[in-house]
Structure formats: C-alpha cells, structure tokens
TrEMBL record:
InterPro entries for this protein: Cu-oxidase-like_N, Cu-oxidase_2nd, Cu-oxidase_C, Cu-oxidase_fam, Cu_oxidase_CS, Cu_oxidase_Cu_BS, Cupredoxin
PANTHER family registered for this protein in UniProt: FI03373P-RELATED (PTHR11709:SF394), MULTI-COPPER OXIDASE (PTHR11709)
PROSITE patterns hit by this protein: MULTICOPPER_OXIDASE1, MULTICOPPER_OXIDASE2
Organism of this sequence: Neodiprion lecontei (Redheaded pine sawfly)
Pfam family name, one: Cu-oxidase
Entry-linked Gene3D superfamilies: Cupredoxins - blue copper proteins
Name of the molecule in the record: Oxidoreductase ptaE
Gene: LOC107219854
Amino acid sequence: MCSQSRYLLWLAALIITALPIFGTIIELPQDYDCTSPWSELTKLGVENLTETDCLRTCAVGQLPRVCLYTFVLEFYAAMGTACRNCSDGVLEDCYLPQCIPADGVQRGMMSVNRQLPGPPINVCKNDLIVVNVKNQMAGTGASIHWHGLPMTRDPWMDGVPYVTQCPIGESSFRYVFPAEEVGTYFWHSHSGLHRANGHYGSLVIREPCVDEPYSNDIYDFDLPEHTIVLSDWMHETAEMFFPGLPSRVPGIVPDAILINGFGWYLNGTASEDSVNSSFPLATFHVSRNSSYRFRIINSANHVCGFLIQIQNHNLTLIAADGITIVPVVVDAFVSYPGERYDFVINTNNTSLDEDAYWIFVNGLGVCANLGLYQNAVLSYGTNSTDLGIIPNRTRPTLSDPLNFTKVLNYPNTTCGESSDYLCITDLRSIGNDRDARHSSVWTAEPDARLVIPFGFHIFDVNDFHLQGTYQKYENLQDTIIRAAMTSNITFTFPSSPITFKEKPDNTFCNTNNLPARCLNISNTTVGSYCQCTNVVILQENDIIELTLVDTTGDALENHPFHLHGYSFYVTHMGRNYTEEDANSLNQTSCDPPLKDTISVPSKGFVTIRFRADNPGRWLFHCHFEWHLSTGMAMVFWVEGDMLPPPPGFPRCGDFSSLT
C-alpha cells in the first residue's frame, strides 16, 4: 500500500520545506509504566528540558518518544513591537520572531509562546505527550484542553477547570498523556474567553502509512505545514463583550476571519473591499503531479460556520474529527467551531507548471450578514521562503464567490434528498461495521435514551437587576438579556473540580433533582429557570442514545456540540423535531460516522450514540464560546474505576473559617 519511494519523498519534502531543528530525542522504553507515565519522566531525564524532537516520519518498528513542549501563556499584542515595519508594507518584518500580524490591526491578546496559532504539536501514535504550561498572565487562571482526545488513561488531564482540574494560576502545570488515537485534533484554552483571545493550536497524531485503513495510496504527502487552523478575530479583547454592551453595534461578533493567524481585514459590507495587498496571507506550497493531505481545524468562537473551497480544485474528504471515512469528493464543505476535516487535493490537472490559486473561506450565518470572508493562497512550485505570493486569477469575494455543485454540511440541508448537498449522516466510517462491539452501538436497543433541549432563557429587564440577584447572562443589544440552557438548566461550574468527588452529592443537580432555589422568575418566557451544576449519571458500558433539540428559534445559528472523552455515532439529523420523532428513530444498519463535535441544524435535532466505556467526568457543551460561558453545558458522570491522579495533583475549593 505505502511504498518505500513514497516514504523517501515524504522525508525529503519534510527536510527541504519544513527545515526542522533537531533537538533532544528521548525514546520510551518498551516496558514503561503507561498507567502512571508521570512517574517515568524523571528516570528518562526530562526535568531540565523545555522541548524534545518528535517531528519525524512515523515508521513501523520505531520506539515511541517523549514529546516535550513548553507553553508560556502571556498577555501580548498583535501588531506589537516585534512586528517593526510590517504595517508599512515591509513584508519580511511580518515574519520576524514573535511578530503576530493577524489582520494588521493592533490589539491586546493572549498568546502561547508569542505565536498565533500557538505551537503546533506533531507526534506519532503511542508517543508520550508532555506539555509544561507556565502561566505568566497575572491574576488570570488558565487551562488547556486537548480537543477530541478521549483521555482514556488520563481523565485528570482533560483540561477543564472545575471539572477535571483547578485552573492554573500564576504558576505551572504539567500535562502528560499518551498519543493513543491517530488523527487531527487541536488544543485550546478552556478558561473564560481565552480561546477567542488567542489560546489555540493544532495537535496531529500520525501513524505509519502502511497502517492507515485506506485501500490504496490515496495521497503522496502528509506534511505538517499543510495543517490549516481557522479562527475568527475581534479587534478588542473578548471580555469587552461579556456580558455585553447594550448600545454597542454590532455587538458580540467577529471583525475578521484568520487562516493560520494571517488575513486581510476585509470589509465585505462596504462598497469596495479595503485590502492591504502588501500584508501577508497564509500560503501553502505544493508541486505538480502529486497528491497532498490537508488537515483543517475550526477553532472559531462565534455563531458562524465557514464554507471552505480551493479555486479549481476538488476536495476528497477522508476524515472527520480525526476518524477516517469512506472518501467523498466535494468542491466545498462547511465546518463549525470544534470540527476538523482532512481532505486530499491532486495537483495533476492544472494547466501551468508554476501557478497559484485562491483558498476561499466564506463566513455563514451571522458572519454572512457581516460580510466576513478570508483568502489564503495555494502556490505551485514555490517554497516557504517565497513571500507575498498573489495568484493572477480573480480573487473570490462575497460579490464574486467560487461556485460549487457538491457540498458537505451546508446549513439546514434536508438530509437524504440530494446527492449534491450532503449531511454528516451521509458519511460512512471505515471498519467499524466489522467490529461487533462497535456495530452494536447503533443497532442494539440503547440502555438509556436522553432528549436534551437547548436554548435560552430571556429575562425581563425590569425584574433582572434586583438587589441581591446575580444570574449568569449575556446582553446582546438594548435590553435583551438572556442565559443559555441545556435541559432547561443554566450550567454553573462548582467551586472545586467535579472529578475530586468520589460520588455525586447534593451540590449537583439535573432534571430529576432540582434545588429548591430553582423557582419561577418573572420573565418573558414560560417555565422555570435554574442555575446549577448539571451532572447526569451514566452507567459504565451502557449504550447511550442522546437527541439534541434546538429550541432557540434562531434560523441563523447551527450550534456545534462537543463531547469530551468520547467519539459518538451520528445516526439521525433533521429539522422541526417533535416528540413523535423520538419514537420513529429506528436503529440504523449502516456504518454511521464517528465524530466528537456535531452541528445541530437550526430549529432541528441530531441523534447520537456512544457506549459509556470511559469512566470519568466529561463536559458536554456548545462550542460557541459565549454560549458555553453563559451556561449551555452539562457534565456526564460515567461510572467506573478511574486511575488515581498524579501525586501532588493540585486541589482547590471554597474556604470558610467557620467550616
């Protein structure tokens, strides 16, 4: 399947284009204690190191390595002093060390190692990932979540403050976990609005190409520099808009889209685009007559999807959320915050040996109304030292976009009616139908069925600001005040991590156990309102069927929900959910796709299934940052034995001299 010549081509390209600086290599012994990896680190001599070398071609028979990274968290500035004359059109200055150009607008931000995105992690399967986080943000707690990784051996390392750990104060914390699952993932802060301020980066776990589940050589190159990280960007810190400014227009929305931290500030609502063409764009280099695997990560925060296209190129989708799928050829696909897609492009159908094409990322929903889009460049026959490459072809804009005929995940598509407008449920995972334990998840009668509506509670401004009341909320504009909910509960984090508890207690709540304070409040909606720590108990190894139902009533928002600790099968998706639908969702005999983040159609529903075989305390939440911050979340407490925490694991909680 995977020839030696392909391996040599991959290695040659990596050496020529990536130009890595080889550092310390530490290999893991075959008999190291994988149930307590932190105890092995001192023996391996990593105490005084800040990084080790793991960027390599993954090969059969090689020993796994210790992959050590140091993340320094800081308050920093985009277009700050490191950028010198970048804003004046000196392109080389935009690439100076520690320069974060973003879209050319100066703003305060949060950085990791003074990079945007933060440092990439590229490792091989079974490597041991070690990340030393040093928080230098005075007065601000932080944490890092490893999005999409199940943390089967290390639930303590999932990185959610007050669920799996205490926030990291102005101190350090060491994350240690094995790279057990191959695929495209990413890391991001799970504290406050830090991700929107710049705390995010890629995490890719590869395996030897002979172990990949494809039936033929579907691509020639899988290069680290072909990882694309999408994000939205505000020209002020995100905290300016939390809980909100009533007279601020346009309010809680992004100002730009960034691709690998680069972008032009494009004002799509003006009569003409305001483009500084001397400013850098993200550029991806390829050669003729080859095929390349690209990995795209959506790290955005706001209520927008992104439509992704490459001029004159088809995209062969081969993985979703890190899990391989039966290849599907499209010319566009839509990604929502938290999702990842891998695709292959071929470079043997173009007319010129050396050329460049536009990459087009178009904002949907609210971002479409704002006129937000972004461009990057796919360049032929060039390398990373060539700067300022601009295609000769017409640049796609909102008024002159790229056409498409076959698209995946387009908002509110009626599933099953068109072979050109594909839903996630049209994808097929590879290999799981041959595993009875996997296939039983979508064919057997579930042990537990949960219907989880999500939406908002609208407060009456005349009753909201009463003395002594402090409900969690956001203010969109004027007097619109609301809190987010799942199962009619606004989630609040406890004072100490849930994972510290040996068993659930009366500090938690759920729909069957609401505290006395959850009483009706005078408001513009019908029903009760409750803020509490919503924890749902799941029995170990049960098959769980969960149906998410959008009750927000907003036609422009497709909410992406992410489940920590698991991937799940997406079995059904549709619009206008009714209780009758719950009785008509029969088991499926096909091989449905596995994902860990799923976008729910506006005013619609999604049904997912998973086996609760990973004991721990796992957050389940909307991946729009402001919705999580105002309570659109819950925790699944999966029963079963967890491995103990590392020695000296930090503790925190309430303090009262009277207790």
